[in-house]
Amino acid sequence: MDRQALLDRLAAHEAASRAGGGPERVARHRERGHWTAHERIEALLDAGSFIELDAFVTHQCHDFGMENQRIAGDGVVTGYGRVNGRLVYVYAQDLTVFGGSLSAAHARKICKIMDLALRNGAPIVGLNDSGGARIQEGVGSLAGYADIFLRNTLASGVVPQISAILGPCAGGAVYSPAITDFIAMVEGSSYMFVTGPEVLRTVTHEVVTQEALGGATTHATKSGVAQFKVADEPEMVALLRELLAYLPQNNQETAPTRPTSDPADRRCDGLIDVVPTNPNKPYDIAHVIRELVDDGRFLAVAPDHAPNIVIGFAHMGGRSIGVIANQPAALAGCLDIDSSVKGARFVRVCDAFNIPLLVLVDVPGFLPGTAQEYGGIIRHGAKLLYAFAEATVPKVTVITRKAYGGAYDVMNSKHIRADLNLAWPTAEIAVMGPEGAVSIVFRRELAEAADPVAKRAELIDAYRTHFAHPYRAAELGFVDAVIRPEETRRHLVSAFDALEGKRDRNPPRKHGNIPL
Q: Are residues 92 and 123 in the same domain?
């Protein structure tokens, strides 16, 4: 065979591998507003940087007539490239090929990419669009899923793993994303569920739509399974590229930096009056975050789930940081089951990847009630406590207003190894709020008072004057400094600079036993 014939043969194989399930299926896929697997990867990666691997792999199934249905690539495109110049490994499932279903060959392709990412210390991005296990391959397909799950677990905390859900994902197809660090979904076109609506209708007689059962809004709001939801695929690509910019390549690297013209000593005059004089009046902690961070840029993570705690990424003095903050505008900033779990997972992601933590505290306590107690608030609240206590990255706390009871301890207090604890003059640090404290401490005086209402108001005012302030904690060294709100950015940038060389480690152990 001459050289040209060899090249023609290669070109034919390449064309077949890019053809997916054929022109008709690809056309229907595009009509529904979706990109092809190759188009998704090329949009995500820097132009011209994608190197595809295993483009000619096919399945080896001989049952149910599958030996006559072999398609190059077998429903998943795998390889590596660059995002903002940094190495990233990626796979994209192709719904036009056997519905994106996972076969043994399909799984081996993904496993190879994951092995390379782990070996070379680079992030893994999965563009998921799969109907689940390929039924014709039986246990071979199930084994392939387990091989992927194992690699997800071994890579956890070693290299960043991000899952983009771009279509319907069911059964085994949802467990790999669940182990990864972040999940993003597309509104109206991506779904995640263990069992779909048809199975529910048959087994439990529940009637529910795909969207209500496992759509982007459901998982970004109710279940908390997804941290992000986007409107379409271009927005997904923009999100993934932005998210990767905040993350190091692996757990041996420090948090990435980027140039900024935002002065480190910039005054934040917008914070002077941000905390209301009425301690029961809410304010938006997101405003505080944007005032403090570089250029006002903040990438909120899971903004629609457990809104009483705000988490996300920003830069401070050019350095990538993780922010976790109580939100007084939702449930008065109380910690509950969902916010505790949300916060704990984020703290552990940041700690795994050497991203310093900024903690903004305005918390009146844990949310009371039988629903919370029966749901295990003790166990779930302990997750957040455990995560902060375990974390060895630089940790800086600013108490803006309330820090009451056990919630004060949990929210990165000095007692669980916070490096620097600052407070605004508006801070109230005590066992509980004035109203509750007066009801307990002065029960007898109130019972004997001629005018209990006036006496109660007098005692509350006295308690607030003598206890609901930051100075007793400062006297004991539990608060390192009481600062003016407008000077907070200067203090924070300086603190993170000083903590750049922090060395801290936990006792030798196989792993701790977090209260799951």
A: yes
